[in-house]
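ARCHIVE CARD
Drawer: 12
Card no.: 0347
Subject: one protein chain, sequence and derived structure
Cross-reference: see card 0346
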Amino acid sequence: QVQLVESGGGLVQAGGSLRLSCTASGRAFSSYIMGWFRQAPGKEREFVAAISRTGGSTYYADSVKGRFTSSRDNAKNQVYLQMNSLRPEDTALYYCALNSRLSSAYYLRGPDDVDYWGQGTQVTVSS
């Protein structure tokens, strides 16, 4: 059983930045593919970003490409999502996600690919 705890959400004006963090329990963090998803009210949970086990490869949804950057620190059991140029449509509950089975972070694209979820952290972008 792995526990994921997110932090860093909040209220920001459009054009601003936030950095989300996710800390995982356990000793095998470097063996996990990590990702971020988000869910806005009345909408389905959607893929935002995925990062490979080493952090050397990252993948993003088209809607955030060029604005969001994911990174990880395996020594600290942490993964990050740096969000710049935020827009009101980025408002959502953001979830940290873990997969232990896929061969590549490229394939972490939907909720069915996730083994463990964090509790979520709210990001609200005002116009």
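Annotation on reverse: The chain is about 0% helix and 45% strand. The CA atoms of residues 32 and 100 lie 5 Å apart.
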